[in-house]
Amino acid sequence: MSVPMTSSAATLDVLEVGRAAQVKALALDAVEADWLRAVGLVEGVAVTVLRRAAFGGPLHLRLSTGLELAVDRALAARVEVSP
Amino acid sequence: MSAEVALTVALVGRPNAGKSTLFNALTGGTVKVGNFPGITVEAVTGQTTLEDGRALRVVDLPGVYSLVGAGDPDSDEGHALRSLDALKGSPHVLAQVVDATQLAPALRLTKELLARGQPLLLIVTQHDLLVTQGSTLDVPGLSEALGVQVVAVSAKEPGLRVKLLHAIADVARLGPSAAVRTFDDAALAARVVRHDGGLKDRLRARTERLDAVLLHPLLGPLVFLGLMTVLFASVFFVAEPVSAAIDAGTRFLAQHLEATLGPGRLTSLLVDGVLGGAGTVLIFLPQIVVLTVVLELIEASGYLARCTFLVDRLLRFVGLGGRSFVPLLTAHACAVPAIQATRIIREPGQRLRTILVLPLMTCSARIPTYGLLIAAFFGARSAWFKSAAFVALYVGGILAAFGASLVLGSRVKRAGASKPLVLELPHYRRPQARVMARLAWRTASRFVKDVGSVIVVASVVLWTLLNVPSPGGGDVVVPEGSSEKVVAMHRSLAASVGRALEPLTQPAGFDWRINVGLIGSFGARELMVGTLGVIFGIEGEDAEAPLAERLRETKTASGAPAYGVPTALSLMVFFIIACQCMSTLAAVRRETRSWRWTGFVVAYTYGLAYGLAVLVFQLGSRLLA
Ligand SMILES: Nc1nc2c(ncn2[C@@H]2O[C@H](COP(=O)(O)OP(=O)(O)OP(=O)(O)O)[C@@H](O)[C@H]2O)c(=O)[nH]1
After folding, report:
1. Residue B34 Cα, ligand 1 centroid: separation in angstroms?
2. Is there a contact between B580 and B522 (Cβ–Cβ < 8 Å)?
3. B425–A68: do the CB atoms touch at under 8 Å?
4. Sign of torsion, CA B307 B308 B309 B314?
């Protein structure tokens, strides 16, 4: 399921609700990563987790651009962030 | 109206940027304006006149984030890309519509569009929202940095249309910008949007307040379930008084016709054929309008996107996903646009499964039949019981779809990686009353036109077939004391066809009359009630009795009641599942590009419908006996 990642990096899925962090890298295949960047989840953007849906459902994110997104949790696990 | 087109402008932009709103402003058209990212799933075309009198064609493309990586030709990106390519070779302008509050992410798409070398105009819309946020946009600065004309507008500003036409004509004259400039999207956006602070973002504050409740881990799902229940129950409650009035009106007309024309063939054709058929369908007009408007409210308010957030996990479990929710909900009005709306599903396998189960959702064309059966066999129960029965039928459709999807899950696959949910959650907005009113009007007039054409014709054809004697129908046994016209019907061509099917349908409790109804509604299930209206119109001696009463009081040849609760239940189950709709099949064929899957939908829905109808009738007859 998960791609090997540098142990120092935290991922979006474990980010505390309400805490802002910066997107560092997208550990996804190139096409999917590009699509995500086009939506607005680019390296360098600040992101806050607003809430998590019940039963392992999606995350509700807000980007520093003001954009709000629902993002699947498994996908969030592949977004590396730094506080 | 369609003068020689001198120029075409294509509106491109991210989902929910405000394209459809501008399209309507330009053309005076009535494209559905939604607050769900990606609701324009098909290029919509309109026409208007430029200031110099030449004709301008306006194309509203589906919303896209990016055009690169539009690998899947069936996706919105694929459709948009093809439309853009098709424009080359004739005079045109690409107009990128940008939500002023979302400039940075939009500039990525600007880069892609610039690289195409087509004449480009940047329309920054929703400017009013930027202002209420206390920000200002440096339009000349942005234009300078991009090397592209930029115009900032908001949907409600006076003179909007002329301003847009000016800008479009300008870009058409100047052609594509000479040099492609390089820029960093985030840095450029930060430079040209000045945030003066002070004012707080009211739209965001309202969204936060609403989300705190509507997306609350406990309250959120409860509110969702409550709303869905109220939605389906309201179809029954809100519409009932209006339906009753329309019903009384048609019956009054029937009586009046009989009184003035006297008995005879023509009277029977008008009263039993036209009024019995079309009139009985007309009473479901309010239900269908209410449903369409409420579904639209859910979308326009921004709640629809929240629903995907809430149900994604559940839908994943049955092999669908959050994005499937949009077509699944839309299908409660009609499966045809819903099948098209599956283009927003990014995973091909998930999209196909969604298409295959969509026909099981309770579309509005089923409402008349459900309404009739409930009125006929549960008429004496309380209004609460009846509305609960309605909700149960809706839930039945949903469960059938989930079950089918679970079974199909591992078998129906298409190439393409799994695409987890990523969806924009727009701010909540107040739906515009004018847009809603227009939608209600359009739904109603389309329905009346339908009733006025297709259903009247079908009713008259059926009435004729019910009056043409069948060869060898002379010895059919008819209930004692039947009138001449009832005897004629029992011995008619249509009746003999229905009777030929009885050995097959008897286990499900369907007699020849219901069979005739089912055959009549094979291509379009909304014909069912009209068809039954004609049959029981001829049968009933009393023009005043509503169809539900006639249905309940129909006797078999031996004088026993022809139908009971088990028949009603079995017919309901059949109606939930069978795909009696040519338009749906055509849409399945169009979107899957496969006759095999189209055939599969027919086979599995009819097979399952028949099997379950038999099961329900057999169990029902034993348990309720
Ligand atoms: N305040 C404000 N709201 C706007 C303006 N233009 C559009 N909206 C709202 O923005 C939302 C999206 O508008 P649409 O025109 O449906 O957007 P679209 O780009 O066609 O969206 P898709 O069909 O999803 O691609 C709707 O709720 C509109 O009412 C504007 O200038 N000002």
Report:
1. 7
2. yes
3. yes
4. positive
Q: What is the structure's pLDDT at A7?
A: 46
pLDDT < 70 positions in chain B: 1-3, 29-43, 69-72, 180, 196-200, 239, 280, 412-418, 473-474, 479-481, 540-544, 625
Work out the minimum CA distance from A15 to partner chain B, whole angstroms.
Answer: 17
DSSP letters spanning B566-592: HHHHHHHHHHHH---BHHHHHHHHHHH
pLDDT score at B412: 66
DSSP at B454 = I
Q: Are B111 and A37 in contact (CB under 8 A)?
A: no
Torsion of CA B313, B209, A66, B327, to 10 degrees: 40
Yes or no, beta carbons of A69 and B424 under 8 Å apart: yes
- Of the candidates A42, A55, A66, the beta carbon closest to that of B102 is on A66
Which three-class secondary structure state does DSSP give residue B159?
coil
Q: How far apart are CA A50 and CA A40, in angstroms?
A: 17
Q: What is the pLDDT of residues B342-364, one digit of tens each?
A: 888 888 888 899 999 999 999 88
Ligand 1 center–CA B60 separation, angstroms: 13
Secondary structure tally for chain A: helices H, strands E: 2, 6
- Kindly state if the Cβ of B35 falls inside 6 Å of ligand 1: yes
Backbone angles phi, psi at B147, to 5 degrees: 70, 35
Q: What is the pLDDT of residue B195?
A: 76
Mutation target for A interface from B76, B96, B307, B421: give the one with most A CBs within 10 A: B421
Q: What is the DSSP string of B262-290?
A: -SSHHHHIIIIIIIIIIIHHHTTHHHHHH
Distance from C-alpha of B234 to C-alpha of B253, rounded to nearest angstrom: 29
Provide the token pair at B190.
Answer: 């930060």
- Probe target for ligand 1 pocket from B24, B33, B44, with the most ligand atoms within 8 Å of CB: B33
- The answer to whether the CB of B344 is under 6 A from ligand 1 is no
Q: What is the pLDDT of residue B445?
A: 85
Nearest Cα residue to atom 24 of ligand 1: B38
pLDDT attached to residue B164: 94
B421 and A75 within 8 Å at the Cβ level: the answer is yes
Per-residue pLDDT of B159-200, as tens digits, reads: 899 999 999 999 988 887 777 678 888 888 888 888 766 556
Q: Strands B135-137 and B92-99, how do they pair?
A: unpaired
Look at residue B328 in the predicted model and tell me its pLDDT.
Answer: 93
CB contact under 8 A, B422 and A60: no
* Predicted pLDDT of residue B252: 85
- Rounded Cα distance between B311 and B182, Å, is 42
Residues β-bridged to residue A68: A62
pTM assigned to the model: 0.82
Which residues, in sequence order, are bridge partners of residue A20? Answer: A48
How many C-beta atoms surround the C-beta of residue A16 within 10 A? 11
